[in-house]
Design a protein that fits this description.
The structure is a single chain. This protein is an all-alpha fold. It has 25 helices and no strands. Helix 2 crosses helix 11, helix 3 runs parallel beside helix 11 and helix 16 crosses helix 23. It is globular. The N and C termini lie far apart (47 Å).
């Protein structure tokens, strides 16, 4: 029996934990590497060669998320009604081409165009993979399954940081994009031969596991789906204020995440006055810390059913460490410890947060709902890096980091204000009824 699942259903095989989670995780890792390698390329020579200012660097880091908007809802709907496997397969091809082209650019405007196109190409990934997870894992397992997949952020950070520093040191920043782009082609082969959209399509799954999944997932949908919700339009769901609370929460969270992620190498380089290779090694530890706690928080949330609490607590810790990284900057290693602390809390909330839409929407609506929450929330991914770049230009890096801490504190407040029905074991939980808005 696979210990990852922690299932209480004795005798039910757990092949899905080893056959579905790893290829999804690897594809997500590649997407994130392509997304954040610019954070190392900038202080690694790209800014000097292309004449990029701090404001332009923030824009280049953030414009990705403008493109990221376009395929969020279509991706979620395709995963529900069509094939998420094919969607991600074509996405991997696009990631490879765009990343390689980025290594060949000659000016900052070409960079902006390619970063925007990379955002478009990656836009559907998260709602697609989360929908695929919801097709394979019942509610009692979904928090842990989401958390394992969302570990792609710290795992990608652990890989990208030293790899990027080494490639830039040995070759240059252009080869960083070319080499990491070619990795997408390798992952495409793995993806094509391992992943299935649903248990009914997989040839390797046992009848016992298939029947358990089909029956359990059907029972969950029967419990939460009413006629009004099943046939509701997405515009009707958007009329409910809880949906907008989730979007606002995700916006402030992503502002903090990507502001921190995309400026961390630059902040470390200025703090420690070391080479880009050494910065790459220093940047590993925050992501190691992130892995250490993600599974703990999601497991506690699954065990207790408390979603709001285990979203808000890590956000508070993230905001506090962000604040301390500035106030302690006179003491280099204490400030670095606070930056590591930021990494520790970086993704704790994410796995738990993405269990909430499945509690509020039918399967028919959940794919589109995830897309909207991720699309509009990830505008924070544009605002975070760009705001830090502008504040660095106008004031200092300290002002930029304080801005991120405030954003994370607001995200924690949004989590605490969510209704009780978001908790998995709230008394008499009900899905959002888009025709009866909350007072």
């Amino acid at each position: 029996m696979n210990t990852l699942s922690g299932s209480t259903h004795a005798g039910i095989p757990h092949q899905r934990w080893l056959r579905i989670i790893p290829p999804i995780l690897i594809a997500c890792i590649i997407s994130y590497m392509d997304r954040v390698n610019i954070a190392f390329a900038m202080p690694g020579g790209m800014d000097e060669e292309l004449g990029i200012s701090a404001t332009m660097a923030g824009l280049a880091g953030g414009i990705f998320f403008i493109g990221y908007l376009f395929l969020q809802v279509p991706g979620g709907k395709i995963a529900v009604h069509g094939s998420g496997k094919k969607f991600i397969g074509w996405s991997l091809v696009a990631w490879a081409v765009i990343s390689v082209l980025t290594g060949l650019i000659t000016n900052q405007y070409q960079l902006l165009v390619l970063r925007f196109l990379l955002g478009v190409a990656e836009g559907g990934m998260l709602p697609v993979v989360l929908t695929m997870i919801s097709n394979w894992f019942p509610d009692a397992e979904r928090g842990r399954a989401n958390a394992i997949v969302i570990m792609f952020v710290p795992i990608a950070g652990i890989i990208t940081a030293p790899l990027s520093g080494w490639i830039i040191t040995v070759l240059d920043w252009r080869w960083l994009f070319i080499i990491e782009g070619l990795l997408s082609v390798v992952v495409l082969v793995l993806w094509a031969y391992t992943v299935y959209d649903r248990p009914q399509e997989a040839r390797w799954i046992s009848e016992a596991e298939k029947n358990y999944l089909v029956e359990t997932l059907a029972a969950e949908q029967q419990a939460i789906v009413g006629k009004e919700v099943k046939h509701a339009s997405l515009s009707a769901v958007l009329s409910d204020k809880t949906m907008w609370q989730l979007i606002a929460l995700n916006f402030f969270y992503q502002t903090g995440i990507y502001g921190y992620t995309l400026w961390l190498p630059t902040i470390l380089k200025e703090l420690t006055h070391t080479s880009i290779g050494q910065v790459g090694m220093l940047a590993v530890l925050p992501y190691v810390g992130a892995i250490a706690g993600m599974f703990l928080f999601s497991s506690l949330s699954d065990r207790t059913g408390k979603r709001k609490l285990f979203v808000s607590l890590p956000l508070i810790g993230f905001a506090l460490c962000m604040f301390l990284s500035v106030t302690l900057k006179a003491h280099i290693w204490l400030s670095y410890a606070a930056l590591v602390g930021c990494g520790v809390f970086l993704q704790y909330a994410a796995g738990v947060f993405w269990t909430i839409p499945a509690r509020l929407f039918s399967a028919e609506m959940a794919g589109g709902a995830r897309g909207v929450i991720n699309a509009l929330g990830n505008l924070g991914g544009f605002c975070g890096p760009y705001a830090v770049g502008v504040l660095i230009t106008l004031y200092s890096k300290d002002a930029g980091v304080y801005c991120l801490a405030i954003s994370l504190a607001l995200a924690a407040l949004m989590a605490l204000l969510l209704p009780a029905k978001c908790d998995a074991r709230a008394e008499n939980p009900r899905p959002i009824n888009p025709r009866k808005r909350e007072a």
